[in-house]
């Protein structure tokens, strides 16, 4: 849809941005106090492992990317960051101040920069999937067809009939068939998700749920299954989940500034508690794009990446039911002109998104505070489909 952004519009957007910068006090590092990197999103060099480059040097229209901030202003989107990587190089980043509800911190106005951690929310699930793959690669787990009950001999008395048929694969694809509903209001006692935060034994709570359907019959979004996967990783590795993740995933990616938050009951929130810098979260996307490699090192097997990003279920009831689901990863598409472009993504509540576009060798990451809003996540797909993808001048 390149004709949506004629040169006049791009120049106009750039003028708006320039006027905004001139009207805003500027810090010593040359960035405006209100918004970071308004000068067309030129990435900063902060020695975090990323090679930076200009968009034009990797076959993208830099001036088109300059219109992102103006587009977000039009949408009143509560977006906090946009990061773009192509051909393995960081080519664009912008940060925006605004309201947020950071885990364990006061709600309110916050500033965001390249070194500010942000809640990933349910994008944590996709990271948990990578950790399961690494555990399988390291022979800590035999495979995805291992029965879940094998890992919880101490909870045998709590489970209902039907659990013996549920495997790790069913947890990964959210097709276990257990009775679970987290689509209700947070204050609704029938919402299962809050129980993960206050139950003394949240793992026992999940394992005690009745089985509503045989595995592979119903797709139901289920953070409880991800919590079981996180606990299984702790059991097979003999380490807390964050420690295991740091050793096998984050350290190899050069990520040291992270948190994996715990629920009020002290249980680490495998399904939602990860906090990362947006640039570091983008490394997760690049790892998947590179089929499990980072800087030439195979961190997770290419086979696991392929298995994880294979569509396995229609995601009925979420995001218009138009997307597919794999092993804790979403799959969808964007329309660029008259061509459909497929992507893989990690989605987190509030607008946290990591988009991986293999066909274009592209990764885009956003953070936001669209918690509970009807337009949650729309800004991310809008700028991906209508600005970032159309900015690509060459297919590879």
TrEMBL record:
SUPFAM superfamilies associated with the record = beta-lactamase/transpeptidase-like
Show the InterPro entries listed in the entry: Beta-lactam-related (IPR001466), Beta-lactam/transpept-like (IPR012338), Diverse_Enzym_Activities (IPR050789)
Q: What residue ranges are annotated as transmembrane?
A: none
Q: Which domain of life is it from?
A: Bacteria
Is Signal found in the keyword set? yes
Q: Among its keywords, does the record have Kinase?
A: no
Return the protein name: Beta-lactamase family protein
Q: Entry's Gene3D superfamilies? A: DD-peptidase/beta-lactamase superfamily
Q: Hey, what's the signal peptide range on this chain?
A: 1-28
Q: Which residues form the Beta-lactamase-related domain?
A: 69-373
Q: According to its UniProt record, what is one Pfam family this protein matches?
A: Beta-lactamase
Alphabetically list the UniProt keywords. Signal
């Amino acid at each position: 849809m390149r004709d949506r952004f004629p040169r006049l519009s791009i120049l106009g957007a750039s003028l708006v941005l320039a006027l905004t910068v001139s009207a805003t006090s500027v810090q010593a590092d040359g960035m405006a106090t209100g918004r970071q990197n308004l000068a067309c999103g030129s990435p900063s060099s902060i020695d975090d492992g990323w090679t930076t480059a200009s968009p034009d040097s990797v076959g993208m229209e830099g001036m088109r990317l300059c219109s992102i901030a103006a587009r977000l202003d039009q949408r009143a989107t509560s977006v906090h960051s946009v990061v773009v990587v192509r051909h393995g190089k960081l080519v664009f980043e912008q940060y925006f101040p605004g309201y947020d509800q950071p885990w364990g911190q006061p709600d309110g106005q916050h500033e965001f920069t390249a070194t500010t951690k942000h809640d990933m929310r349910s994008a944590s699930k996709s990271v948990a999937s990578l950790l399961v793959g690494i555990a399988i690669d390291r022979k800590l787990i035999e495979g995805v067809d291992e029965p879940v009950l094998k890992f919880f001999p101490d909870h045998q008395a709590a489970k209902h009939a039907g659990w013996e048929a549920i495997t790790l694969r069913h947890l990964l694809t959210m097709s276990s068939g257990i009775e679970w509903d987290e689509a209700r209001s947070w204050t609704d006692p029938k919402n299962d998700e809050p129980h993960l935060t206050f139950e003394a034994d949240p793992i026992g709570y999940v394992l005690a749920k009745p089985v509503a359907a045989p595995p592979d019959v119903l797709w139901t979004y289920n953070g409880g299954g991800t919590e079981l996967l996180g606990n299984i990783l702790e059991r097979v590795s003999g380490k807390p989940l964050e420690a295991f993740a740091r050793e096998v995933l984050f350290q190899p990616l050069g990520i040291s500034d992270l948190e994996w938050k715990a629920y009020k009951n002290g249980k680490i929130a495998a399904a939602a508690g990860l906090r990362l810098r947006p640039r570091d979260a983008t490394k997760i996307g690049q790892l998947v794009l590179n089929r499990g490699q980072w800087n030439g090192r195979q961190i997770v097997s290419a086979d696991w990446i392929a298995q994880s990003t294979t569509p396995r279920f229609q995601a009925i009831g979420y995001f218009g039911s138009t997307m597919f689901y794999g092993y804790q990863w979403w799959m969808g598409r964007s329309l660029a002109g008259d061509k459909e472009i497929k992507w893989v993504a990690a989605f987190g509540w509030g607008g946290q998104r990591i988009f991986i576009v293999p066909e274009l060798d592209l990764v885009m990451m956003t953070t936001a505070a669209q918690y509970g809003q009807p337009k949650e996540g729309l800004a991310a797909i809008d700028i991906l489909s209508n600005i970032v993808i159309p900015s690509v001048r060459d297919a590879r």
